[in-house]
Amino acid sequence: MMSDGNQDPFKSVGRKPGLQIWTINNMQMVHATYCIKGSGQSADIHYWIGNSSSQDEQGAAAIYVTQLDEFLGGSPVQHREVQGSESPRFRSYFKNGLIYKKGGVASGFHHVDTNAYNILRLLHVKGRKHVTATEVEVSWNSFNNGDIFLLDMGRAIVQWNGPKSNTREKLKAVLLAQDIRDRERGGRTQIGVVEGGDERDSPELMKVMAAVLGQRTGPLKEAVADDKPDKVQNTNVRLYHVFDNSGNLVVQEVATQPLTQDLLHSSDCYIVDQSGSSVMVWKGKQASKEERHEALNRALGYIKAKNYPSSTTVEVMSEGGESAMFKYLFKSWSDKGQTQGLGTTYSMGKIAKVDQVKFDVMELQARPELAAQQRMVDDASGEVKVWRIENLELAEVNPSTYGQFYGGDCYLVLYTYRRSNQQQYILYMWQGRHATNDEITACAYQALDVDNKYNGAPVQVRVVMGKEPRHFLAIFKGKLVIFAGGTGRPGVVNPDPDPGARLFQLRGTNELNTKATEMQARASSLNTNDVFLLRTDHLCYLWYGKGCSGDERVMGRAVSDVLSKQDKQVVMEGQEPAEFWVALGGKAPYASDKRLQKEEPPHSPRLFECSNQTGQFRMTEVDDFAQSDLDEEDVMLLDTWEEIFLWVGNSANQHETKEAWTCAQEYLRTHPAGRDPDTPVICVKQGSEPSTFTGWYNAWDPHKWSVSSPVSLRQSSLSSTMSPSPSLFPSSPAGGNVSPSAGGSGTFLNPELLIDKSPSELPHGVDPGQREVGARFCQVQPNPMQWLFL
After folding, report:
1. pLDDT-based confidence at residue 594 (cuts at 50, 70, 90)
2. Which residues of 275-286 are buried (b: 16+ CB within 10 A; e: fewer)?
3. For residue 337, pLDDT beyond 60
4. pLDDT at site 777
């Protein structure tokens, strides 16, 4: 180990799921705390660097991280965290926020004495998604109009809300103040709130602040930028082979994006660089011990050589233990022995092929996680209505032709189903590849009109021709046909794209996942893994590739009857008559390798807060996300790889809502793995989420937004309960004895009992419509020691 003075620094390492924290004290690793967290299926080691830490301390931390990684078998992912630039995963461990304390070990990691009240500090609280609190000078000079400040005086904490701070920030600050009270003071600290824009409504609290800070003599500073959004998604991803040559670090470029997994060799170590926004190190299983041991140091040396900021994110991982973010940078990635939901997805060429097991609607409704994995809200037995865009207006489609889509048209498909005895709607906007820009625009406007007729309830899904999602396939019961061009308008004669012959690829194993897609009538369009229908002026051939299954042949024959009532001549691959090749313009090479049938790996879902306020598309990732992370004032993007969900909060500003579709397209376009820009995009409104969305969240509460919450937290609404005696707070900066007031006739409740709770879960006496305005005063037995003043 590192020194004789600490022979076994890892003896306290727990093997159970949890979060353990150590500090570097006099170059030794000292255990600080432990709490249960996580599943135990994977491990992450984070080492955090304070802005005032010494180079020796940073070096010691890096050494201990490497040794701890070896102690745990080399499987953990190592993360380097720098104060103020922590990763979303690191921040997710501390839901109530991070507090940056002044000083070093002596001040930051001593045993907490819950009876110590000789404290005076000012905490500058920032952030809506990721909350941090930094100790600053106890002075009015530290304040500004946009942030929140906690004046901590031991027995009392005053929360001062900047006039330009918002509701979410205020609630986060309340939870942070409460966390300080409970963890550091044993629950024996009282909390008061001052609205900076209405200080006259809190005269007693302002007297306390003036006693500590002195009288304010001038205006406060203007608001400063809040949470820094994550850096612009960088498409410039490069893979480097890193090795030592006679003591010199050699960095050799291997490839640029999109990266593929086969570029990584088990005998080597590599660096993946996102143009300085993050640096990831991959250690092959067969790399030398020295190379694996030096991986972290080489990453730091690489950052220095590139003149990247010292706050650059660093991750180090071993082969087989790659992080989800690392896999996201690759065009394709597969893990040994992986499975996906209840079926297997294969990628053949550019089109996904899905084998689905059968399931019933009751199971989908009872298990939203299954609905999400299968991308199916129900069993597709609901009602369907289809319109076509004609002369930029809606024209109803004859139900006898439902399922027939032409590449020169745009369509709206309204699907209606029931969930929990309530009508639910999905509005698909299908865009033909050869539709005009005017028709595509009209389709979007007409969708808005239909949406308004149903009071905004429909979930809107943009569907690009050829990229139809699973549920869209299912609602047409195996009779979905995509024509390459032309129009379905009555009375219009569509010319054959290939005179004398038309070729259709028939793909699917059951009526829930089958469709026919028109291809160019050429031999090169064939694929050994599929069924094809070749229709000529005289004959219809049903061609079975060697790689297709019996179920695919059955469904191929069924959908071929939609295309032609003629008798079909079955042709097995390799036994084609001469007339077959003549109709296709002659023989030609085609996809005939069964190895094209690759398993499409599952990807972990990712949630982002979207923002383009700076003029560039930016996103802030929310790690370990939950329903409570969906902010009513934001547009959120949920990436499940096969689909993109845009969740629009009820209070999201008009500009963000309008730009939501553009944001999703920009996200796909700039994705470093070279994502398909035609990936289905699904727009979901707050309160109308389908199970294919809610299933990605643990313990989704359908009643969370059944009662609208106010948009502001006002001190004046609680003025009748804000009459503490002046003796409640210290009268001088030195503090002194503080005794809680026994006055009043009620108590305010713990915010965690009120926030993100359904009406049925609220404590008795709480008005659901006022719960987020500070827990409206409820008549329960008072306990002054636990008062929370808002």
Report:
1. low
2. bbbbbbbbbbee
3. no
4. 29
Q: Are 756 and 771 in contact (CB under 8 A)?
A: no
pLDDT in tens, 619-668: 677 877 888 788 887 888 999 888 899 998 888 877 777 777 777 888 88
- Beta bridge partners of residue 428, listed in sequence order: 413, 461
> What is the rounded distance in angstroms from the CA atom of residue 741 to the CA atom of residue 621?
43
Question: How is 722-778 classified by DSSP, letter by letter?
Answer: ----GGGS-SSTT---------SS-BPPPGGGTTT--GGGSPTT--GGGGGGT---B
Question: Token match 């709480």: residue?
Answer: 766
CA distance 163 to 531: 66
Q: Are 684 and 645 in contact (CB under 8 A)?
A: yes
For the record, the structure tokens of 704 come out as 């969370």
- Give exposure, 205-221, as e/b (b: 16+ Cβ within 10 Å): bbebbebbbeeeeeebe
DSSP state at residue 400 = G
Q: What is the reported pLDDT for 602?
A: 61
* CA-closest candidate to residue 590, choices 768, 399, 348: 348
DSSP annotation of 229 reads P
Q: What is the mean pLDDT of residues 441-457?
A: 90
Residue in 633, 638, 669, 629 with CA at minimum distance from that of residue 652: 633
pLDDT above 60 for 735: no
Query: Distances in Å between the alpha carbon of 417 and those of 382, 385, 642, 682?
Result: 5, 12, 23, 17
pLDDT (tens digit, 9 = 90+) per residue, 373-429? 777 888 888 999 999 999 999 999 999 999 999 999 999 999 999 888 889 999 999
Checking if the pLDDT of 128 tops 70, the result is no
CA-CA distance, 147 to 484, in Å (whole number)? Answer: 56
DSSP 470-507: HHHHHTTTT-EEEESS----TTPPPPPSSTTEEEEEEE
DSSP secondary structure code for residue 527 in this structure: B
Amino acid symbol at 604: S
